[in-house]
Here is the input.
Amino acid sequence: MTRRLLASVAVALVAFVLYHATLLPGFDFGDTGSFQTIVGSSEITPRDAYPLYFAIGGAFVHVTGLDHAFALNLLSAIEGAAASGLLVLLASELSGSLLAGIASALLFATSYTFWSQATIAEVYALHAIFVTLTTWLLLRWAQQPTLRRLTMFFAVYALAFGNHLSTVLLLPGFTVFLLMAAPCGWRSMFAPRIVAVALVCAAAGAMQYAWNLSALWAMPHPPSGIADALRTFWFDVTKSDWRETMVLNVPSSMLRDHVAMYWFDVTQQFGPIVPVLSAIGLIRLFVTDAKRGVLFTLLFAVNFLFAFNYNVGDTHVFYLPSHLMLALLVAPAVVAQALRPAAGSPNGLRYPVSVIVGYVASALVIGYAGVRAYHDFPAMDRSHDTRPTQALDRLTNGVDDQRAILLTDLNWQVANGLSYYAKEMRPEVVHARMPDVLLYAPTLIADNAAIHRDVVVTDRARQELDAAYGPLIGARIAPNTQLTRLPMEIAELPRGTRYVLCVLRPSRDLPLDADELAGAYRLLTGTASSVPDGDYVAIAGTTGRPPDLVAASGRPFDRDVKVDGVHVEIRMEAWLASDTIRRMGFGHVIANRQHTLIVERGISFVAFDDAGTAIRTAYRANIFAPLPRYVCYR
Here is the structure.
């Protein structure tokens, strides 16, 4: 056990070095921005949920004294490293081989989606800890089925629900395994003391949400009684208003596309060989221990089917538990010796030659994980990603409590980032959502004008004012608003500048300006031709000359090209039919192993030097695009 613990710590340290080197330095848009804003608050509403995540995060922020955004990002790196280390213990337990356990852990630690979630404030690294730890505790109980070990399993499993309610997806596999592995038959699992322990642990786990429930009475409209509070709590904590339209609601016409998306997703994590090894590992489990085979079949299948039928914009993160199972099942696949030693065999080995084969196979998998980590490192590196700060600097330019207030109606991801930005970085920025103040907007504008303070609004907020009040409220473009069109930015570049232009099908709420794109393309290529059709388009070359690469496809692709002597890799990393949210971006441009551009939906453009360093970056029709701003007047 000591060797396993040392190996677990070593793998955790390797994973932490990777995650820390690629860590996002500040806040982000989307759920990440929301977590970074909420952490440290004394009240966490049922809608915010995740009480254990916020409790751990709040304690970490308090102890380290770091700013909230960086602290939560760093905590994810620590949790991701811990999950990788625990996976060594679980995979070793499953396969009987420490080297195979290390191989499985490194495969998962360097997988694309998990790595991306371990560098930002998110709940999935902590979720991986609980998936791994509860499964390991369950296998340990099966080896020595004592009440103490069973209690430990129940307690940790109950605690896991405080981080993420998808922990319930482990229940079918865990329940069947407990019944199959019960030493005195399945009925013994219903003994009064076991039922009592399970109920006590479940109740203790549920008490984590008392924090969320109590917050209802601090709201402007508190519940009328405990029954009303429980209804509101359940509705909000399970997000019933939108889950009803998303869980098991993938249209039948999209099922074939989801199959293709899943294969793309799996090969993005591991390449095509690992799923084959995982299948071999599962077969070996059934041969050597059918109970374990059933357990891991159910753990994989239930999590996979939930994610497959979950009609949500970031499906890829819900595949993470199934990715963990695939990586885990590689361990028994690469162990060539029997998983259980033959009676009377020397050193507990059945075939000494097979031991060498197992070591070689495990070493090859470790090397494979290392090669993939080396290849993906530039794409995963967000250590210099300050795009959210730059976007909100533009949006709030000239806005403070002395000169102007800001009224917005933004994409929800940007709105979450603005909440953190205005709370932690620029508290002098006074802002509100236009839907919240629309009823009394004319009075608000007049009162601020009376004290010589402007009311600055975003474009969608201005449209809402126009629809509600028409000519009663006027608007002019706000000072310091940077709205240079893309062709003008490109025209400023010297002829012969290296560039990559990516065009991905935009979201419906962020339409693309076809004329702007056409003008940019003509300037870049020096031709009158148009941008090719395709959900994924990439053009690379030097300005004013025919491009070195023009690639367009309805499916994600990778392309390598030399641009004026610089090796450039263009990676399309998202499945647009399913992905509307990608924390790591929808693709990447890597030049001379530098992370030159994170590709988003809509237009993403970069000009770069011979070292691969970006000298100009521009976004249009996505959440990082410059936004029009207007000053309202009556």
Q: What stands out?
A: The first strand starts at residue 404 and ends at 408. The chain has three domains: 2-339+346-380, 387-482, 486-624.
